[in-house]
Amino acid sequence: MDRRYAGRAERRALDALLALSGAWLAAGCVPEPAAAVFEPGDLRPPAVASWGPSGSAELVIAFDEDIAEAVPGFASSPGPAVSASRLGDDRRSVVVSLGGAQEPGAAYAVSGIVADAAGNLSSFVLPYWGFNPDTPGLVFNELLTEGTSTHPDAIELFATSGGNCAGLALFIGVRENYDARFVFPPLAVSAGDYVILHLKPQGIAEETDETVDRASSGGLDASAEAWDLWYRGGDAALPGKNGVASLYSSPVGIVMDAVAYSERTADSDENYGGFGTAALRDRVAALVAAGAWVASEPPRPEDCARSTGTTSTRTVCRSSSSGDADSGSDWHVAPTKGATLGRVNSDDAYSP
């Protein structure tokens, strides 16, 4: 048939159908809608809530709802290989057993698929760091926040107990919201040791991470008495007067210590509770929620360590005893030329 005539026939059929539909509507003959054939139920797949090693050869992955099945085929890369996976006793987690021990602090990834009771599948690939059974006690001890070309930004930590730093993660910010992250190499420390993380290295050969000899590294503000480590991930400057730093047991672990510092007050900016930015306000609130910082409700800038007057030689530091009450009362600004990176802090305080 000629396509022109076929097109005319189709149009005539459509016109007739429309006319008939109009008649039905005019006569009130619209049929009652039928009951829905498809009844929607649970269509959302499980979401990962948390994960990480629970032992040298075991991982636990927690979800936000009950899990009905861990689909066979879980894998870890690089080895050790997954030997088994099973549902946890709480029905909201999967326990992944490895065929061998993880290297403490080494980077791995685990992948798998789970299903909930409605049959919704969730697949994932998650980074994790090898289980460290011997983490030390570390606290932030001194912050050089107003670095210069001769005294760049740096963070000093103090060891309250010995152990191995492998896989610990330091954030400028908090784990969920940060500007820079540093994952520690294997480094055995003893109680009383100092660790300095230099945030703006020059990139010279002398700037070596000290994991054996505390006197082996050169570079600006390197200390012969402390363990010197160097950040190599780009710009990791500390905020000059208003910021947060935090330390976790791993990049996906629990918070071990933190410090929030500010020169602002609750009256500085009414839009952000005086913190100046939503990011700083939210980071301080996250520390308080995690039990890592003591503050009022809601937190105020006055709850932070005071940072008024800081310079490259006037650092924010703890007392000489490195006391830790998780609050701004632990901290003061050292006097001019009072920076003590790698040594016992001065109890003298800057007075404007």
Largest sheet: 6 strands, mixed
Mean pLDDT across all amino acids: 90
CATH topology of the largest domain: Immunoglobulin-like
Report the count of strand segments. 20
Number of domains: 2
CATH architecture of the largest domain: Sandwich
The assigned structural class equals mainly beta
Query: What is the CATH H-level superfamily of the largest domain?
Result: Lamin Tail domain
User: What is the CATH class of the largest domain?
Assistant: Mainly Beta
Unreliable residue runs: 1-14, 20-27
Question: TL;DR of this structure?
Answer:
The protein is built from two helices and 20 strands. It has 352 residues and is mainly beta.
SSE blueprint and pairings:
Elements: H1 3-26, E1 48-55, E2 58-63, E3 69-77, E4 82-87, E5 93-98, E6 107-115, E7 121-129, E8 137-144, E9 154-161, E10 163-164, E11 169-174, E12 177-183, E13 188-189, E14 194-198, E15 227-230, E16 243-248, E17 255-262, H2 278-289, E18 305-306, E19 316-318, E20 331-333
Parallel strand pairs: 14-15, 17-18
Antiparallel strand pairs: 1-2, 2-5, 3-6, 4-5, 6-7, 8-9, 8-19, 9-14, 10-13, 11-12, 11-16, 16-17, 19-20
Question: Overview of this structure, please?
Answer:
The protein has 352 residues and is mainly beta. It has 2 domains: 48-129, Immunoglobulin-like; 137-333, Lamin Tail domain (Immunoglobulin-like, Sandwich), CATH 2.60.40. It has 2 helices and 20 strands. It has helices at 3-26, 278-289, and strands at residues 48-55, 58-63, 69-77, 82-87, 93-98, 107-115, 121-129, 137-144, 154-161, 163-164, 169-174, 177-183, 188-189, 194-198, 227-230, 243-248, 255-262, 305-306, 316-318, 331-333. The strands form 5 sheets. The protein has a 6-stranded mixed beta sheet, with no helix packed on it. It has a 5-stranded mixed beta sheet with strand order 12-11-16-17-18. A 4-stranded antiparallel beta sheet has the order 1-2-5-4, with no helix packed on it. The termini are far apart. The relative contact order is 0.11. Mean pLDDT is 90; it is low at 1-14 and 20-27.
